[in-house]
Amino acid sequence: MTNQHHFKRGVAAWFAIGISTLIPSFVSAENVHISTPGTSLILDATEGKALRFLYYGDAVSPNEVEAINSAHHSMEAYPVYGLSSSRETAMSVTHPDGNMTLDLVVKAVETIDLDGEKVTAIRLADKYYPFELTVNYLTRPNSEIIETWVEAQNNGKKDITLREYASAYLPIRRGNVHLSSLYGAWGNEGKLCEEALQPGMKVIKNKDGIRNSHTAHSEVMFSLDGKPQENTGRTIGAALCYSGNYCLRIDTDESDYHHFFAGINDDNSAYTLKKGETFATPPLALTYSDEGKGGVSRNFHRWARKYKIAHGEQLRKILLNSWEGVYFDINEEGMAQMMADIASMGGELFVMDDGWFGNKYPRKNDTTSLGDWTVDTTKLPHGINGLLAEAKKNGIGFGIWIEPEMANTVSELYEAHPEYIIKASNREPLKGRGGSQVVLDMSNPKVQDIVFNIVDTLMTKYPEIDYIKWDANACVMNHGSQYLSADNQSHLVVDYHKGLAKTLDRIRAKYPDVIIQACASGGGRANYGILPWFDEFWVSDNTDALQRVYMQWGTSHFFPAVAMASHISAAPNHQTHRTIPIKYRADVAMSGRLGMEIQPKNMTAEEIDFCRNAIANYKKIRPIVQQGDIYRLLSPYDGLGAASLMYVNPDKQNAVFFWWKTETFVNQHVPRITMAGLDPDKMYRVSELNRIDRSALPFEGKKFSGKYLMSNGLEIPLEHNIANRNDYASRVLLLESM
Ligand code: DGJ
User: What is the pTM of this model?
Assistant: First the structure.
């Protein structure tokens, strides 16, 4: 698949193409069976009746569908407001005459097949009003994910207002259902939260406007058989593929069901549909596995690498990013030294972070210059070309930081175009970072052009740029668009993300190969709404290795290692001020997309040597970590003194095992870890990577069956066999089958 093709699928996606532009084949069946290799979703789509949901779970045979229809208590597949108004609903509208109800019945079922990607579109129409709703289900080859979204269409002559417009609804049978979700904060992103679902409403939401994954995440799992288990138990996963405000609701009412709704957060965002207009929601990606949370994660990861992350099936370069090394103190000599240092350690790419731009207002700190993307030639007399030449000399790639959706009020851009920022009318603009940061209004096509041009200019002038770190460090502080009409002010945050998507489509159409990182004050943009255009995300501004064990653990529930930027940083750490040995820092970073975030010239010779060796080792395990299947083994959240996970190649030939102690006490007892995901009949040779002990582990070089490793496991010493290294023990083991 060419890159262009990849982006077309991943980004424009079916929901944006609009299924009406494709030629469908009509299906007359009442029962609609949407299937992936291992799962089935069954609906009753009888013409002239409401669309009913029957079943979602393990794959069933087509012969069973009829029987399932008779056996199941059917539920509404997409509840709308008006005629059973006591219930939570997915969609509510106001018709031109003020009527606030919908009464939708099935009009047609269509299927569209394009190279194995299959959309089932169920067209519903209101019984009286000229309003149509299409409920879509997309499956892709070799994937266990079903993407579902709706398109609302105004076939009348006057405006219809969408008040609620969720992407999807799923009824989940009550029993002993537990919810796993991520909840955190800046510097503490991706924390795993697990709870039994209780009566009442659980709401997971975001209203930042720009970044949507610092606190809650728009991905969840439902464990249907009691407490969440890693490798057993029926589990449903759901990920809303959206980068803006979202709302997930789980209403546990008096019925037998938990009612799960997911979609754009419609608070203060009523959306007007003009005559003939269609509104497509972002898709909700659903998956099911009877292999517990791990099975759901592996389903998401495989789908993401193939369809939802830019270049998701390619290996990533090992990089040094300049931020924690020099912060804003960019200069030619410093950049050259960092490039030489990362190259000497075996790294493959250098990224110059914030601080390189600004002419009239040079960017010395965070108070000025966003918007003025011209090189500060005082800091960099030979410009970007000088840096590119230096990178070439060192045999590495070069990357650059930008924050294109933003401006500072102290900038030439803002001086010329104050009308481009988000601001309520008759109010002073609220300012964020540095006391002067404002957000550009991406609903405005002129702003979309500016943002496109920032990338276009850089890439045209310097086509050798390999990598872009795309940052976003502000939220929508005051609601107001200077571009949108008075009637459409409530469209702002939705149109912002539509504008961003259009701009990213243009960028990817012209620059399909450049690697782009989604950074948003750390992990503010870890979501499947943004990743189709982006290769990876910065997990967190917090690089403390111990805290990263927890954050990366949570994040791995939904996102594969290839997308999780994970960097070795300084000791003491700049965020927690904790001093962690270099081995532990490297052993944690190597479980994601390895990079460095450090000033190499401040590292000791021992640290440099260690990193050189660790980078060489990472190159050996990179295909396993970045393209393998994850098996989480011992959760840091269980408080048992250690955490452990492994990656296994799809053919189960090779695996890599990570083990990190999370606390240290004298005579503590840490569980022995049984491995997972291996072939029980294969023999695996075990060797330790990044070894610091004086003597090898007793099992070094020995061969064990997958069966033994998965039923017994290896006894990992709690300490390192060198002086003063009881704390922060960690191990990385490579398993190679013969
Ligand atoms: C916030 C990011 O998360 C950091 O990594 C760094 O790029 C700074 N912005 C630069 O201002």
Answer: 0.96
